[in-house]
Amino acid sequence: MHASTPRILAFLLSLGALSAHGQTLVGASDGLYRLDGSSRPVRILSGVEVKKIVRAGDSYFFLTSRGVLRSRDLSSFEERNSGIPVKTVKTFAGGVKGFEREIQELKDLEADPYDPAILVTCTKDRVYLTRDAGASWKSLPSPAPQPGMKAVAVTSRPELLLFASHSIKGPFVRTEAGAWREIGGDLGKSDPSASADEVSDIVVEARADGPAVWAANSFLPRLYRYDFAAAAFRVQYKEGAEFAAFDSLQPRPDGLLFVAEGAVMRLDTARGTATKASAETAEVLAAASGLGSQLEAIYSPGAAGKPALNLSELWLASFRSDKPYRQAADGRHGIYLQTGFAVRPETRASYDRLMTERGLDTVVVDLKDDYGRLRFEPRDPLVKAIGKTVNPLDVEGFTGEMKAKGRYLVARIVVFKDQRLYEHLGGAYAVWDGREGKPWRGYELEEREVPVPAPEGAPPSTAAPATEKVMERKYYGEYWVDPYSEKVWEYNVAIAREIIARGFDEVQFDYIRFPTDGTNLDDARFRWKDEGMDMESALMSFLSYARANIAAPISIDIYGANGWYRSGVRTGQDVELLARYVDVICPMFYPSHFEQGFMGFEPAVMRPYRIYRIGTLRNSYISRKRVVVRPYVQAFYLNVRYDRQWYSPAYVALEVDGVRDASNEGLLFWNNSGRYDDIPVIRRGEDRRIVSEARKAPGASSGASTTILD
User: Fold this and answer.
1) What is the pTM of this model?
2) What average pLDDT does the chain have?
3) Is the dihedral of CA 108, 109, 112, 118 positive or negative?
4) In this model, does residue 333 exceed pLDDT 70?
């Protein structure tokens, strides 16, 4: 028995004794539990993730993976989701498709402390209000046009007011019949030139002199109180750190509780000081230790003068991974190589030496490239029937050679951008052009001058011919297949399964998104889309199918902005949802690809470090730590303003430092041409993470490599 086990069991027994007049409840990733004084929690509801517990009047309300559940007796539970939208997830097994319908993921649930029949919740893009304890919900628009809701709150005094937080636009307030108004005040910003940073939680405290409204930031160490007269948030507490996660606020007579990294904290609201809430932290950790799953929420009614405890987002205080392939993927550092470099013995040898010299253990190689060409000779009948092989890699020879040297091998598979599959069977799987009735391709309109034809029969002229301006289509070199198609999923997963069976360690899905470019984007139609599906459910359906059929780590590449903000925008890349299915997310935080002023405040030279450190942390916390965050590091020069001034080996080393100082779970260098002269040497500890560094002076322009030393 572990030395701490007797203390933990004693604490669990004390919880039962303290709650003799009520019940301590624990929400977890696999159900709802009761702590009743026994050595182990008793599960009273299974088959559902319980994220938050709300006590309102004579009822318990639960924020779950099945939407809102209500119970009076903790024996029977009823769904309270009338008016909340449903998402359709397509299944595909044994060649047969089916459908599972689930409530759109709810981000928050709060009750009005003055009227237990009034509650508010939200999806990523709408707010929902009930006045009848969840029997019916009224839909209200989001305060911003793009997805990204995080938190909501409601108070009926002095009038009915709704509060909402958006990941990009910050917090808002409105009356039920009014319009959203942006909340001003002393709100923190990661980038001084940007909008207010995301607010993680908003709660209303009922006081004798009226309501107090409290808020916290998701990625900054700040707590706020709402000034009703000024319609603004005022800082009540802040720290100097550039990043910290505060969430799940609970106002109590003894202060404002909140959850932070590894602990429950208490704000002394009179003094403006925050300290660790030791007893509450111990209670949370004890509850977590008794579970075999992730602790999500706790509700303890309190007794004998002890205040109630009601907190959620408890992965912050005690994280537990449920992914069997995560460990193998953690702490990997490597490079991306176009397959041709791996095919040719001389270039393969040179990159192998580079990996040894720079302390890298991982190589990513295309097995299906950006045009849908297979870069190996397939054996699977389905893959052979569809795929076209170009300059193939000797898979067994390559994997045998690399494994002998301790390399970790990642097979990059470009999924929904695939010219070969786009053209297969006359475009059966292509994104469709609804206007022109043919496979869709994105284009831009380009103005061009062309000669005006002379009238028929006109005599020859020596004068310069007249011209006119016309708009011509300039097509992108991209061919998109339908992300809703289960046949597209089957083909890509068949490739992944074969390549894992033949020696690769991990599958990396790229272009796991919808098309985003083209004047004609609105003409794109998706013929394989089934009723009730949207972009997020298409990607969820594919990844759910992939997860069920691939016995190896799965990674996905995403836009850097989708790892920075809690928003899938128009690509479908919603990190919170996709993290359910994959082991690794690889955000492309390339400084060259953000707006050039983004995070560019002084000292501007530190911009690459800021973007990679803060971005990696944000991605990790948006995913609730459920995945390894292994960013792609920009190891290439792009002719944009910031790169023209600053790109150098030091620029790349700053990016590496940023990843190391964040979650430090690994990284991959990207240079499409295979030029890796600028990357530093990586030295790691026993757990494969970078342990220390000594970087070149920022802004150095020498071609020499920066070295990270023990």
Assistant:
1) 0.91
2) 91
3) positive
4) yes
pLDDT of residue 16: 40
Structure confidence at residue 607 (pLDDT): 97
Chain segment 85-104, per-residue pLDDT in tens? 999 999 999 999 999 999 99
Predicted local distance difference test score (pLDDT) of residue 569: 65
In the three-class reduction of DSSP (H, G, I as helix; E, B as strand; rest coil), residue 76 is classed as: coil
- Of 655, 29, 679, 684, residue with least CA distance to 335: 679
Q: Render the burial of 633-648: b for 16+ CB within 10 Å, e for the rest.
A: bbbbeeeeebbeebbb
Q: How far is CA 320 from the centre of its chain?
A: 18
* Residue 417 DSSP symbol: B
| Residue in 282, 310, 290, 288 with CA at minimum distance from that of residue 298 | 310
CATH 3.20.20.80 residue ranges for the chain: 333-439+476-660
| Greater pLDDT, 338 or 16 | 338
Is it true that domain 333-439+476-660 has CATH number 3.20.20.80?
A: yes
Whether residue 484 is predicted with pLDDT greater than 80 in this model: the reply is yes
Nearest partner of 220 among 195, 199, 251, judged by Cα: 199
Average pLDDT rounded to a whole number, residues 175-180: 95
pLDDT of residue 693: 53
Give how far Cα 519 sits from Cα of 380, 403, 515, 527, Å. Answer: 39, 47, 12, 20
604 burial via Cβ count (<10 Å: 0-12, 13-18, 19+)? middle
Under 8 Å between Cβ of 119 and 109: yes
What 101-105 contacts at long range (C-beta under 8 Å, 24+ apart), as own/partner pairs, is 101/532, 102/65, 102/66, 103/66, 103/67, 105/65, 105/576, 105/577
Q: Cα–Cα distance between 677 and 702 in angstroms, integer?
A: 11
Amino acid at the residue 119: L
Q: What is the mean pLDDT of residues 682-687?
A: 85
3-class DSSP assignment, residue 409: strand
Helix (H) or strand (E) holding 329: helix 326-329
Q: Round to whole Å and give the CA distance between 121 and 107.
A: 7
Residues 603, 604, 609, 613, Cα dihedral to 10° = 80
Please state, in angstroms and rounded to a whole number, the distance separating the CA atoms of residues 129 and 139. Answer: 7
Averaged pLDDT for residues 509-513: 95
Classify the phi-psi angles of 581: left when phi > 0, otherwise alpha if psi is within -120 to 50, otherwise beta. Answer: alpha
Q: Give me the amino acid identity at 414.
A: V
Phi, psi of 88 (to 5 degrees): -100, 125
Residue 19 has pLDDT above 70, yes or no: no
What is the Cα gyration radius of the chain?
Answer: 28
How many C-alpha atoms does 155 have within 13 Å on its Cβ side?
A: 18
As annotated, the residues of the chain forming the CATH 2.130.10.10 domain(s) are 53-244
Q: Which pLDDT band, with edges at 50, 70 and 90, does 9 fall under?
A: very low
**How many angstroms separate the CA atoms of 178 and 581, rounded?**
39
53-244, which class in CATH? mainly beta
